[in-house]
Amino acid sequence: MGDTKQIWVIGGRDGYTIGDETLELMTEAHDMAKKTDCRITVVIFGEALDETIALLAGRRIADRLVTFEAAAYRHYDPAAYMAALAQLAQTQPPDIVLAPATSMGRDLAPRLAFHLGAQLISNIQQIQLTPAAKIKIVKPVYGAKANATGNVPDDAPLVVTVIHGVIGVGRTKGSKATQIDRRSPPGTASQALASGYQVLEFIAADPRTIDIVDADVVVAGGRGVGGKDAFETVKAFAFLIGGAVGCSRPIVDDGILPLDRQIGQTGKTVAPDLFVSCGVSGAMQHEMGMKDAKYIIAINTDKDAPVFRISDYKVACDVNRLLPAVIKEIHGRSIEEH
Amino acid sequence: MIIATIIRQSHFFHSGAIGIDPMDNELVRGNLLTAINPYDESALNMALYLKEHHPGVHIIGITPRAEQAQAFIDQAISLGADEGVILDMEPTDAAGAEQRAKQWSLGLKTLDFQLLLLGVKEMDRCEDEFGIYLGAHLNLPVISGIKTLTLTQAGEVQAVRKLEKGHGERVSCRLPAVLTAEATGRYRYPTLKSIAQPKNTRVIHIPAPTGDTQEKMPAVALKNLRPPKVRPKKGLVEVDSSLSVTDKLSQLFSGGVTEKKGTGDILTGAPDQVAKTLVAHMQDKGFI
Ligand SMILES: Cc1cc2nc3c(=O)[nH]c(=O)nc-3n(C[C@H](O)[C@H](O)[C@H](O)COP(=O)(O)OP(=O)(O)OC[C@H]3O[C@@H](n4cnc5c(N)ncnc54)[C@H](O)[C@@H]3O)c2cc1C
Questions:
Q1: Distance between A154 CA and the closest CA of chain B, angstroms
Q2: Ligand 1 mean position, distance from CA A221 (Å)
Q3: Residues A85 and A135 in one domain
Q4: Is the confidence at residue A1, as pLDDT, over 50?
Q5: Whether residue B42 has pLDDT greater than 50
Q6: Which of A148, A183, A218 is the last residue of a domain?
Q7: B44-53, B120-129, B138-147, B224-233: which has the minimum mean pLDDT?
Q8: CB-based contacts of A216, cutoff 8 Å, min separation 6
């Protein structure tokens, strides 16, 4: 390896858009470059990438932004992606590759490591480059009940996948002029790298059936909603704002929703962008499962309900009278807009 | 059609019994439970589903030589697998996933199968690359992280790969192939009759690694046992002057992760009026 470390960041895809993971990985690469001489190459795939290019180049972190833009990259296809990366590695192989621990990154990283003869460490939380260019990593083990830390031998290239959300996107900006390198698709990869499979269709998440853990928006109902019939309004509101329906334990106990919708200590832990709590008191056992939501709106008749302590927006109102009015208001606004 | 399913072991802790021996940095194994890796159990489940829906499917459960190997095979056969194979190879625990896959592939190459199914993740290692490496060493296509699986008339498999945020993609693949399964959370229980039935197990010996298959030491060593910590978001933390001293400190120490919550007014009024204010607020925030 030369004196300058070649760091690659592989752009993440969330569904089929390039997500926050890419910015997180760029932030991590930027930190590594502060201590050691590094050249950062960000590689992204997809169709119609102009906005993404402007966003990523605007961070001024990468020395080079390589884009592979074609219909072939619309879906993640290991064969097409590997052919592109293999071509890129021919001229300047990487020393360290940071890939997101997403459905794409987890699949691509080992294929790339195998091709490069690199060592792979998956699902890491942290990677550090010491001033002496030694690599240290931290990763979870035993179902994330323990952490393993270690020094990585630097006699071979290293590929890592990084867990999303542990680093934080932040506002990191560099001062580099990012060179944009637009590439067209090379041929397909060798048989060993080829996927051998074909993507038939993309299946968009349905908020009514999506796992509450995966949802960006969760609407949770509690005992304050009343019975099964009243819960239909909570479901209608959730559907209208593209949210998944969750609940507190009594709702499961009463057989209104199945256990996989329960949030809390004995249910699931969610951390959506928006959490709307409807008629839930916010008992500690429930709070454990939702307190990490980025924005919490709580609706409760009791101004002293514990849920208000952890909410960003508090509404003291009868949920059964409020939600129909909210649904009407949203419909009214969307008609006005058209 | 022959489906080979891989069965690896996982460790679970009784809460409170997690510990590391400071002398050798090893797990204190006293109260550790050993069970089939849940992702492998999910893969076995998918194989059993195919067997129930397609006549002539034969399932082989494969596990490496270990103390619990026979128990795992017995469990797989009780659940519906047709036979078990124990791969008798040198323990590869210390090796990286690629080296382990290479070892396994030596044994797997001696078996005849059309579909190799395994869990996408190994719980103990929190690793998800083993299946891809197996495919590379066996020179077979790999579909990773599938939620459902069906066989088509044309003798191909169709699977739904799990993507982020509840999305998925339907893919099709020719056989033979390697497929890695997500945890589906659906488990089966053996019947008393199936527990009592004789278990057909064979052992395949794999030569010890030599030359370039020498095990490499793992890159990472277990050091501490605590849940992963959220690292603070980058950037300056602006301390909120309206917070109490304790909240200010917790905001500072969390590096800004703790946002101001629970402060601010409570919106009250007639439902129609409140609905207007609430919807306007949600619109401002970009939620609708
Ligand atoms: C070991 C253990 C584990 C548990 N695990 C869980 C768990 O995983 N998840 C979980 O949720 N619970 C769990 N619980 C139960 C938990 O302690 C609470 O009892 C439960 O969360 C209460 O649910 P709730 O808020 O819906 O009901 P309640 O506590 O009855 O609260 C109803 C709320 O609705 C409000 N309200 C009433 N009418 C209206 C209205 N018309 N409009 C608006 N608001 C209204 C009330 O003011 C009240 O705040 C667990 C308990 C134990 C002991």
A1: 10
A2: 9
A3: yes
A4: no
A5: yes
A6: A183
A7: B224-233
A8: A242, A272, A273, A274, B165
| pLDDT reading at B218 higher than 70 | no
Whether A201 maps to a domain, the answer reads no
- Which of B113-117, B151-155, B261-265 is predicted least confidently? B261-265
Structural domains of chain A, count = 2
Complex ipTM value: 0.80
| HEC sequence for A176-238 | CCCEEEEECCCCCCCCCCCCCEEEEEEECCCCCCCCCCCCCEEEEECHHHCCHHHHHHHHHHH
Flag whether A189 is in a domain: no
Q: Is A283 in the pocket of ligand 1 (CB under 6 A)?
A: yes
Does the pLDDT of residue A294 top 90, yes or no? no
> What is the residue-averaged pLDDT of chain B?
82
Where residue A164 sits, what CATH number does that domain have? 3.40.50.620
Select the more confidently predicted residue: A205 or A39.
Answer: A39
> Are B267 and A313 within 8 A, CB to CB?
yes
Q: What is the mean pLDDT of chain A?
A: 88
In a domain, A66, yes or no: yes
**Are A126 and B231 in contact (CB < 8 Å)?**
yes
| CATH number for the domain that contains residue A229 | 3.40.50.1220
Please give the residue range of the domain that contains residue A109: 5-183
Any ligand 1 atom below 6 A from CB of A157: no
- Report, as an integer, the average pLDDT of A141-147: 77
- In the predicted structure, residue B225 carries a pLDDT above the cut 70: no
Find the A249 Cα to ligand 1 centroid distance in Å: 7
Q: How far is A254 from chain B (nearest CA, A)?
A: 23
Query: A107: which chain B residues are within 8 Å (Cβ-Cβ)?
Result: 132, 142, 144-145
- Among the partner residues B11, B128, B166, nearest to A211 by beta-carbon distance: B166
- A188 found inside a domain: no
- Tell me the CA–centroid distance for residue A258 and ligand 1, in Å: 16
Q: A230: CA distance to ligand 1 center in Å?
A: 16
Among residues B81, B101, B71, B73, the alpha carbon closest in space to that of B89 is found at B101
Chain A nearest C-alpha distance from B185 (Å): 10
Looking at the fold, whether A265 and A311 belong to one and the same domain comes out as yes
Same domain, residue pair A326 and A274: yes
Quick one: A155 and A235 in the same domain? no
- The residue ranking higher by pLDDT, B198 or A338, is B198
A159 lines ligand 1 (CB under 6 A): no
Output the DSSP codes for B156-199. Answer: -EEEEEE-GGG-EEEEEE-SSEEEEEPP--------HHHHHS--
Phi, psi for A171 (deg, rounded to 5): -120, 25
